[in-house]
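During the second year of the project, the team shifted from modelling isolated chains to modelling whole assemblies. The rationale, set out in the original proposal, was that interfaces cannot be judged from single-chain predictions alone. As a representative example for this report, we include one of the complexes processed in the last quarter. Its constituent sequences, exactly as entered into the pipeline, are reproduced here:
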Amino acid sequence: MKLGVLFSGGKDSMLALHLAAEKEQVTCLITVVSKNKESYMFHTPNVGITELQAQALELPLISVDTEGHKEKELCDLEKAVLQAKTQYGIEGVVTGAVESVYQATRVQRICNRLCLWCFNPLWKYNQKALLEELLERRFKVVISGVFAYPLNALWLGKQLDQGMIEQLSKLSETYGISVTGEGGEIETTVLDAPMFKQKVEVIDFESIWNYTSGVYVINKARLAPK
Amino acid sequence: MILIVDMNWKKDSLAFNEFVQSIVNIVKPLEDCTVKHYMELRISELEMFSKIILSGNALKDSQVFEHIDKFSWIKTLNCPILGVDTGMQIISLVFGIPLMSCRQIGITEVQTVKDNPLFEGTFNVYTLHNYSVSPSETFDVMAQTGKCIQAIKHKQKNIYGVLFHPEVRNSHVLEQFVVFKKM
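Output from the structure prediction step:
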C-alpha cells in the first residue's frame, strides 16, 4: 500500500515513518508549516528543516504553509493530503499521534473524506518505551522546544539519551508532564535516523528563552556523510 | 487465558498497534492473554480460552466482512465474548442481523439504556465506524447515541458488543469484561 506520512521532523512522525516503511511503501512526506506557534495540530519549531530531512531520506516532500487558524489549518492539511493522493497515488496516511484524540479525529475525518486509509502506528504507545525505542534504533533527537515548568533553557538543543529519559520520567512523576511531550511540553527535531542516507549537521543555531518557554532554532544546517 | 482476535485485514499489519496492542496493554496486567489473527483461528482451540475479545480495525478496512464464515463459532461457544467496533458488527452479522449506516468519528456522548456489568450512566466515548447494528430480538441494547446503537448484549448468552473504542477512552469497560466473574 502506498502511504504518505504526516511529517513534522520531530521524533513521533519520524518513528511513525520508520514503522510504516517496515510494513508498507512510503511514497511521500507531507508537512504543514504553521505560522501559529500555538497550533493544536502541527509541531512548529524547526519545521523548516523537513526539506533537508526529506533529502536525507530521499523521499519527496509536499510542504504547505498555513496561517494556523484552528479549523483553517485543517483545510490546508486536507489540500496537502489531496495533493499527495493526486501526485504520488497514496492510498493512506500515517500520523505520529500517540495520545491526542483531537489530532487523530481530525486526520481520520480528512482521510475519510478523501477515501484514504489512516494509520496511527504509535497510538497509545507507552511513553517511556517510545523514547527508549528511539535510542535502540539510534535516532539522533534534539530538544527543539520546551514549554512547561520545570523544563528550562538548559534543555534546549540537548540530545536525547538514557539519562534524559530517566530525568523526564522523574519530572513526569513529580510535575505530571508527559514523558514524550505529548501535551506540548517538549518539541523535538531529528538529525539522524536509520532511514537517513545522510545525517543533518547543524551549522548555526540559537536558543531563545522567553520567561517560561524556549526554542532551539536551527538557523543553518546541511547534509553530511554518516 | 483470554484470546484477543486481530480483526485487521492481514496479520502483523501496520494497524496492529492501534487496534490490537492497545487492547493487549489493558488486558495483560489483569489476566494472561494471547493474540491470533482471525484467519488463524481453529475452532478446536477456542475452548481453551476463558474469554474472547474481537478487536476493531481501520475505518477503511472491510476485508473481515468477506470472511464472516470464520466466526460461526460465536454462536456455539460458551465463553464470554466482547466485540469492539468491527467485532460488534461481526457478532451481529453472525446472528443474521444487518448493519445500518451510522458514521461517527471522534468523541461522542453515549447513554446507558440498560443495566449491565460493563458500564453505567452517560459518558464520552471515542468512535470510529461507518456502521452500527440494527435493532433485533436477539440482542438487548445497552447503550445508544440518538438513533445509533452503541452497545449490545445477547439476550441469553454472554456475548457483548461495544461500537465505541474502550481502548482509547473508557478502558474500564475492557477491565470490567476481564475481571467480571458471573456474566
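Chain A is about 35% helix and 30% strand. The two ends of chain A are 30 Å apart (CA to CA).
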